[in-house]
Amino acid sequence: MRRVLRIALCSAAILGLVAIGVLLPTFKAAAENLAAFDGSIYAALRVASLANFPATAGNTTSVSAGAELIEKGPRLSALNAPAAGTAASASVAANATARHVIDCIDFSSVSSGAVTAANVTLVIRDGASGAGTILWQKNFAIATAAAASVQEINQQGFCGLNLVGSTNTAMTVEFSAGVANAPQTVNFSYYNVQ
């Protein structure tokens, strides 16, 4: 009985060594080529660089095309809170070697006096104020208000947008129009992809 057990253990050890011998070159190749198993093959890992992002901006592109993005890097921000009657518009200037990626936005409007009903649109643009491709938009109906301190647009914020702009292009978050006696605010945070 002991002899059978010893033979079984030796056979298992030999099979284990054969399995390691077969698998070791695969693991070594994966480590040397910085690859990851995707369920069927070992595919090369790609870094989050400008070359691995889509060539054009727009809401039909995938911002994670081919690149694993673990951390987005340092955040920057822009904000604008103009006087009542002026459309809020926050922009960041073009960067010659990178794309701006909007991560979070925040916006609101509150009456400072009597307000006449109006419709406004909040847009995120891949471009300067009033120009460029609209990547995201939201419409609002401003209600008539008889006095000050009426919250026309409740403070709202969205994070995780990850809207990628074009290389060497400004990025803007803005309302389409100002409303008399209803000051607006817009803020956004972004990071750059090089």
Entry keywords:
alpha+beta; Jelly Rolls; 16% helix; four-stranded antiparallel sheet; 1 helix; 194 residues; 10 strands; 2 domains
Characterization of the model:
The chain has 194 residues and is of the alpha+beta class. It folds into two domains: 2-44, no CATH class; 50-193, Jelly Rolls (Sandwich). It contains one helix and ten strands. The strands form three sheets. Strands 3-10-5-8 form a four-stranded antiparallel sheet, with no helix packed on it. The longest helix has 31 residues, at 2-32. The radius of gyration is 27 Å and the shape is elongated. The N and C termini lie far apart (68 Å). Mean pLDDT is 76; it is low at 57-66.
Count of strand segments: 10
Beta percentage is 35-45%
Coarse shape = elongated
- CATH top-level class of the largest domain: Mainly Beta
Q: Which stretches of 5+ consecutive residues score pLDDT under 50?
A: 57-66
Measure the end-to-end span. 68 Å
Helix content: 10-25%
CATH architecture designation of the largest domain: Sandwich
The biggest beta sheet reads:
4 strands, antiparallel
pLDDT averaged over residues: 76
* Helix count from the secondary structure assignment: 1
Helix and strand element order: HEEEEEEEEEE
How many separate domains? 2
Query: Roughly how many Å is the radius of gyration?
Result: 27 Å
Class based on secondary structure composition and strand pairing: alpha+beta
